[in-house]
Specification:
single chain; alpha/beta; Spore Coat Polysaccharide Biosynthesis Protein SpsA, Chain A; Jelly Rolls
């Protein structure tokens, strides 16, 4: 039986789903559909195969997301290989790194590459398509999956399929790839019946991909091979060499390899496409998320503390406060702790322009949530002024912040729940519920949770500069260079 390794790419920032999705905590890490994040749902999508030996996934991700991804997998009790990209270089290098990892022990498994931020509601149909793909990949082909379109969508690229590649299965040779069309062209594609949405799902044997990328883009393979060879294991993570990987060209799987397969060059594998009807969505913007969520009789979707009156086809999300909508239609309203978005459903693709504007203005709301996750837990900046900041901090049982020092701020800690072990210069002592302690400016200090319940505390910072970069770190059990 052929072994299958899912390769899950988790590097996007999802700016069109701002303000919920942000650069430091993007959409694939959010629970947008149900209790699981999109990443967790992608991992679970491989459950239930009867005829496939599916191995733990390889997750290729940005270093920024490594601890959150590891925690989400830990909660699921799932094993995986987490492969860290020091910089983003698009999908072709990411898949190349995954193929090198998959073949490192001498194996040659079939890889199923999936973006981490897609939704598939019909798992049975997805599994059936994967089984077809296994047969094709076993024969040495590179397979992609095209979504059977039901609307003239202008936000997706398309794949035109040609003649049958397998007379016993609905598997086709690829005729051509086309970019995102205008409305009239998209309608013509829908009417023709020979075009599929380009899903970004791929399947092939690991050695086949390495051979193909070597022949099509030897520069990518060389850079990835060097980065892999100079890399190292780092706890739960595999790091490739940053300097070598920075030299790697950026390119997509489609441009680097798939479009070159259309010439039927005998030196390259065949490229085939399998039509897929499985309730797929790339959840690329608020209107596409509205499409896949359950609605009331007026077409409204609401999440959180929301009241609607005389509204139609409206999507409202509240994270913190009551959101009341009256007499509106085709509007998206998203409330978070530090930002509120109001956008017409026809303009949701343009939300990324707001994010660009925030970045140009140097505002943190474009890339950072008020609540920030760390490997030890999280903190929420609940208030701030010119010379003070108040944070709510939660530390997981057994976790510890780094041993550190600040040049420009002092800190007061008040324990609300649990017990804190505090290091302050040479002192080590416990602080329990309703007790407090003071960390003077310039003092070496560390906060730990020695207990079995989460440690919750309030931190009051005061000083001339309160930025997160005012940290001198001496020791860190997580091996971080960031905060």
């Amino acid at each position: 039986m052929n072994a299958l390794i899912p390769v899950i790419l988790s590097g996007g920032s999802g700016t069109r789903l701002w303000p919920l999705s942000r650069e430091k905590f993007p959409k694939q890490l959010l629970s947008l559909i149900d209790k699981d994040s999109l990443l967790q749902a992608t991992v679970c999508r491989m459950d239930g195969f009867q005829d496939i030996q599916s191995k733990p996934p390889i997750i290729v991700c940005n270093e920024e997301y490594r601890f959150v991804i590891a925690e989400q997998l830990r909660v699921m009790n799932r094993k995986s290989t987490i492969l860290l990209e020091p910089v983003g270089r698009n999908t072709a290098p990411a898949l190349t790194l995954a193929a090198l990892a998959a073949t490192h022990g001498g194996d040659d498994p079939i890889l199923l590459m999936m973006p981490s931020d897609h939704v598939i509601t019909d798992t049975d149909s997805f599994h059936a398509a994967v089984l077809k793909g296994m047969s094709q990949a076993s024969d040495g082909n590179i397979v992609t999956f095209g979504i059977t379109p039901d609307t003239p969508e202008t936000g997706y690229g398309y794949i035109q399929f040609g003649e049958l590649a397998d007379s016993d299965e609905a598997v086709y040779h690829i005729a051509r790839f086309v970019e995102k069309p205008d409305r009239l062209t998209a309608q013509a594609y829908l009417d023709a019946g020979t075009y599929l949405w380009n899903s970004g799902l791929f399947m092939m044997r690991a050695s086949v991909w390495l051979s193909a990328i070597g022949k099509c883009r030897a520069d990518i393979l060389t850079a990835c091979q060097t980065a892999w060879d100079l890399g190292s294991a780092d706890g739960d993570f595999i790091r490739v060499d940053k300097n070598a990987f920075e030299q790697c060209p950026s390119d997509s799987i489609d441009y680097a390899v798939m479009e070159r397969l259309l010439n039927r060059n005998s030196e390259l594998p065949a490229g085939t496409v399998i039509p897929l009807s499985a309730g797929w969505s790339d959840v690329g913007a608020w209107d596409s998320l509205w499409e896949v969520l359950p609605k009331d009789d007026a077409g409204n979707v609401s999440k959180g503390d929301v009241i609607m009156n005389a509204c139609n086809n409206t999507f409202a999300i509240s994270e913190n406060r009551l959101v009341a909508c009256v007499g509106i239609e085709n509007i998206v309203v998203v409330e978070t702790s530090d930002a509120i978005l109001v956008v017409h459903k026809d303009k949701t693709q343009d939300v990324k322009l707001i994010v660009d504007q925030l970045k140009q203005q140097g505002r943190s709301e474009g890339h950072l949530h008020r609540k920030v996750f760390r490997p030890w837990g999280w903190y929420d900046s609940v208030d701030f002024g010119e010379r003070f900041q108040v944070k709510r901090i939660v530390v997981k049982p057994g976790a510890a912040l780094s041993l550190q020092m600040h040049h420009h701020r002092a800190e007061h800690w008040v324990v609300v729940q649990g017990t804190a072990r505090v290091t302050r210069n040479e002192e080590i002592y416990l602080v329990t519920e309703n007790e407090s302690t003071y960390i003077p400016l310039g003092t070496n200090h560390r906060l730990e949770n020695p207990g079995r319940v989460p440690l919750e505390m309030i931190e009051i910072q005061s000083g001339s500069y309160l930025g997160e970069d005012d940290i001198v770190r001496f020791e860190d059990i997580y091996g971080r260079n960031d905060k």
